[in-house]
Write a structure and sequence with these properties.
With 159 residues, this protein is mostly helical. It contains six helices and two strands, in the order H-H-E-E-H-H-H-H. A two-stranded antiparallel ribbon has the order 1-2. Bound molecules: FE2/S2 (inorganic) cluster.
C-alpha cells in the first residue's frame, strides 16, 4: 500500500469540506494547512486537515482575519493531533467577538425603524449606512487626524 493511500486528494478535501480547491491552495500557501507530495508532485492531505479547514471556515464566519487564524492554529500542539479540548479552547476565544457582533446588530435593529421612517440614507448620519460612527460626537470630518500646524491645539479647523 502506498504511503499516501490513507490521505486525501485536494479534490476530496474540497468535496468533503465544501471549500474550493483554489482556497485550499491559498490556505496552504499561507501555512494554515499542510500536505505531502506524491512522487508525481500531487498534494495529499491527512484526514486531520479536514478539521483545520472546518476551523478556518468557521473562524472566517466569525470575522477572524487569516493572520488571527494563523496565530490561533499555531497554538495547537505540534507533538500530537489536536483533540476536542484543543479545538474548544480555540473557539472559546471567539465568544467576545460574537457577543460584540450581536450587540452591534441589536443596536442597528433598534435604530432601524427610525431610519426607514426617515428615508434620508445619509452617508454621514444614517444608522444603516454608518452604524458604528463612534466618532460622531466629536464632530464632522476626519477627527482622528493629527492637528496640522495651521490648526489649533484642539485639532479643530480654523475657518
Ligand atoms: S434613513 Fe435617515 S437616518 Fe437612516
Amino acid at each position: 500500500m502506498s504511503r499516501h493511500a490513507a490521505h486525501l486528494t485536494i479534490g476530496q478535501v474540497a468535496e468533503r469540506s465544501g471549500v474550493a480547491t483554489s482556497a485550499l491552495r491559498y490556505y496552504e500557501e499561507r501555512g494554515l494547512i499542510t500536505s505531502e507530495r506524491t512522487a508525481g508532485n500531487q498534494r495529499r492531505y491527512a484526514q486531520a486537515m479536514l478539521r483545520r479547514v472546518a476551523f478556518i471556515r468557521s473562524a472566517q464566519r466569525v470575522g477572524l482575519g487569516l493572520e488571527e487564524i494563523e496565530e490561533a492554529l499555531s497554538t495547537l500542539p505540534s507533538d500530537r493531533a489536536p483533540n476536542k479540548a484543543d479545538w474548544a479552547r480555540l473557539s472559546r476565544s471567539w465568544r467576545p467577538r460574537i457577543d460584540a457582533q450581536i450587540e452591534r446588530l441589536e443596536r442597528l435593529r433598534d435604530k432601524l425603524d427610525g431610519c426607514i421612517g426617515c428615508g434620508c440614507l445619509s452617508l454621514r448620519t444614517c444608522a444603516l449606512n454608518n452604524p458604528d460612527d463612534e466618532a460622531a460626537p466629536r464632530g464632522p470630518g476626519a477627527v482622528y487626524l493629527e492637528p496640522a500646524a495651521h490648526e489649533g491645539a484642539t485639532g479643530r479647523r480654523r475657518r
